[in-house]
Design goal:
Elements: H1 2-24, H2 46-67, H3 78-107, H4 116-120, H5 124-144, H6 152-177, H7 183-187, H8 190-233
Main location: membrane
Protein name: FAR-17a/AIG1-like protein
GO cellular component, one term: endomembrane system
């Protein structure tokens, strides 16, 4: 029951953030070409792709709490399998975005916000919710909810498909409208863009494997604890 409450609360917070952004935040884009991009140009940012992944995960997590199972099991129902696969993606993106965002922000915040007016338009609480809080939320989920990570090949395939879809989308927008989502991309040569893309993909794989490893340690401890408790009860 407490796990369901947690999932519902996090889901509510994320949905509220997206609602607030769509109704009250007006980002001053640097050129008029951004006005041609669907969904108020929000989907050009990896942050919003990540938020959608988090929302989808917590929706499925709520459904699993109600009709599935959170028990340690080798043969989980379908909804639990979907939840576990989505978690591997949600964890990786929730680690990647805060590290990438705040690293670039500390190096030079104009890489993220082209001017101070753009930064002022986003309330601090919303900025931190999208770029900071997603990490502790998913870490809490990692430690309080049992899960079976998918086979590494399957999990990494899902992750790289998402990365490829995002990369393809922003390149499509560049070749059609001549725009990039982040200012620093205008400063990079095509060679450096390729290096950055490959490096980002490798970082994503690394973060995926970190989540997989932590989860395996947690699952091992949980199984050992259950075995110890069962042994004592005989």
């Amino acid at each position: 029951m407490l796990l369901l409450v947690y999932h519902v609360l996090v889901l509510f917070v994320y949905l509220y953030a997206l609602w607030f952004d769509s109704n009250f935040v007006e980002i001053p884009y640097p050129t008029k070409e951004f006005e041609n991009v669907p969904f108020r140009a929000r989907l050009i940012f990896l942050t919003f792709w990540t938020m959608m992944v988090q929302i989808l995960y917590f929706i499925v997590a709520c459904l699993n709490d109600i009709i599935g199972t959170n028990a340690v099991t080798k043969k989980p129902p379908l909804i639990r399998k979907i939840k576990d696969h989505l978690f591997s993606l949600a964890f990786t993106t929730a680690v990647y975005v805060p590290i990438a965002f705040w690293t670039l922000y500390k190096i030079d915040k104009t890489y993220i916000f082209p001017d101070e007016e753009a930064e002022r338009q986003i309330p601090n609480w919303l900025n931190h919710l999208m770029h900071t809080s997603i990490l502790p939320f998913i870490l809490i989920e990692l430690f309080v909810s049992n899960k079976n990570y998918p086979k590494r090949k399957n999990g990494l395939t899902i992750l790289l498909c998402l990365a490829g879809a995002y990369s393809g989308y922003i390149h499509y927008l560049y070749f059609r409208y001549g725009i990039w989502p982040y200012h620093f991309l205008h400063l990079l040569s095509w060679t450096n863009k390729i290096v950055m893309t490959v490096s980002s993909a490798l970082l994503g794989v690394l973060y995926y494997m970190v989540g997989e490893k932590i989860n395996s340690l947690i699952s091992k401890n949980t199984r050992e604890q259950k075995h110890a408790n069962g042994f004592k009860s005989h």
